[in-house]
Write a sequence for this structure.
């Protein structure tokens, strides 16, 4: 009977541990995304670059009168642009929401945002991240975003 009572007493702990583990992955994914944008605000190329897999593609959906096309950029170019942003230019991408899904070592995040330059609204859109858990932790494997000035 003592063993049965002890077992029942441990069930909430086992259940809680399982929930914390599930939430932990989502929190870790969110932390990598926050690191990217904190690095942008700080103009810290190393901080920005370490959020990505080395050859991760970066793309933007560019809407036009005749339909949309996709523009591409490399992480190295992006990091260079961030690191060489003039001191008097402040970049601030404000994430409005995080929708994160995790399956094992893969995660997807959908993050609506507003972007400001020197405190002035520039554009808004959505980032779609694909992340992979590596030996060093979660890394952004791919990002594509939309950008618009209206309908935010």
């Amino acid at each position: 009977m003592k063993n049965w009572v002890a077992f029942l007493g441990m069930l909430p702990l086992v259940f809680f541990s399982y929930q914390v583990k599930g939430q932990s992955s989502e929190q870790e994914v969110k932390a990598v995304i926050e690191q990217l944008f904190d690095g942008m605000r700080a103009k810290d190329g190393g901080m920005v670059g370490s959020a990505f897999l080395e050859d991760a593609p970066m793309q933007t959906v560019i809407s036009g009168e005749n339909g949309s096309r996709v523009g591409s950029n490399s992480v190295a170019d992006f990091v260079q642009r961030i690191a060489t942003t003039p001191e008097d230019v402040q970049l601030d991408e404000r994430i409005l929401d995080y929708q994160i899904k995790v399956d094992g070592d893969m995660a997807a995040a959908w993050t609506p945002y507003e972007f400001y330059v020197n405190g002035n609204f520039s554009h808004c859109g959505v980032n779609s991240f694909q992340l992979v858990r590596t030996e060093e932790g979660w890394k952004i494997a791919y990002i594509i975003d939309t950008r618009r000035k209206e309908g935010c």
In short: The beta strands are 57-64, 67-74, 91-95, 99-103, 106-117, 120-134, 137-146.
